[in-house]
Amino acid sequence: MTPGSYIPTEYFPVLVLILVSIAFGLGVILIGGLVRLKRPYKEKLTPYECGNPMVGAPREQFSVKFYIIAMLFVVFDVEAVFLYPWALVYEDIGLYALIAMILFIDILLAGYVYAWQKKAFDW
Amino acid sequence: MNFNEIFGTFGLQSTSFLFQLLIVLVKIAVVIAITMLHVAYATYFERKVIGHMQVRVGPMRVGPHGLLQPIADGVKLFFKEDIIPSNADRTVFQIAPLVAVFATLSSLAVIPFYDIFYIANINVGILYIFAMSSLGAYSLIMSGWASNSKYSFLGGLRSTAQVVSYEIAMAFSLVSIMLMAGSMNLIEIVQAQQQYWYGMYLIPQFVAYIVFLIAMLAETNRTPFDLPEAESELVAGYFVEYSGMRFALFFLGEYIGMIVMSSLAVVCFWGGWTVPPILLKFIPQLAIVPGIVWFILKVYFHIFLFYWIRATLPRYRYDKLMALGWKILIPVALANLVVTSIIKYIY
Known about the structure:
A: mainly alpha, flat, B: 2 domains, 13 helices, 0% strand
């Protein structure tokens, strides 16, 4: 097979379902738009704060923990992505794959222990 | 570029292309219709199950035993006003529920309902479901940020952190399934489970199943991990400001997410549409039951589990939720993966 000659026809139904599901969401909203009420007034359109007038801005500073979790997520999720192809070809490669993966996880484990010691998982 | 050339790029002639498109569309229509009906009655089932667990009767008024209640709810939501708060980011606010329903509905493409009925048979099935459920996190953060309300903002942040944390544990638990099956294709995973006399990965991968089950509850924001919408402190979390049909789309997304996750659990751990060979050996009559029946029974067992857990457990505290995900589930799933690979090497 020459490069570029492969046409992923088995993905075609996935594409159709993606288009249908977007159309479904839009359709439900648009059809609803034909029949539903529209009586906005100022009080109704204020953000909900248990009936009180809004105090301060909602998008203020928030806990730095969320940033740490986001960074850790990227590290671990990329690691998981490396493991997918490894798991698929494991049978063909055998012992070499096993040792390579254990070394890989060990390196990651060092970072994991460091993050734990720095209390990145404590709130 | 004319019609034939455009579709020729799919390697198809226009007539056969249109025929294939028709088949795909019919399949999609069947799947979506069943899913929508299921979602409607899943809410009824949930209210009834939880009602009886709490010694109440649940919905009784609309129709016999309240059977028409979901229809009435749906019709009511259609007529409700679509309120967009004045200081919200209008575009993002309006797109977020569409993303929620799109992310979960499109995951149904790769679920093999039984051996001959699936929308698409692709080699990266699990990866595709992961990709789509990651997209779901966007709807949380978009709605939380765009509503410009404190409750939504906090709820959006919390749920995003929760969903991404538990996604890692879920990914690791499924890597050991991929390792055992040597495939990411969901149909091949089901077939690979038939080589055992018990016909499911539930037994050798019990640890991974428990990790998956806990991560599944957290991914779909269900009790005891429903912190994003902790109603006693955040009112409803990221969708506080939504009403009418847009609220319904979030709701739909959550319930379809439950079906997708339950189906993934059934396919990866419970042998999908198949019956354990040992059972078939003793009771050969079971072979005449169509596969779809087994699949639906297994999926409904998981959905019942969602409700059962909801009626049983109180809500987790947020620090404990994060500690459970990062300090327990991830190491356990990783250890399980290493043990699985060593055992697989030895045998």
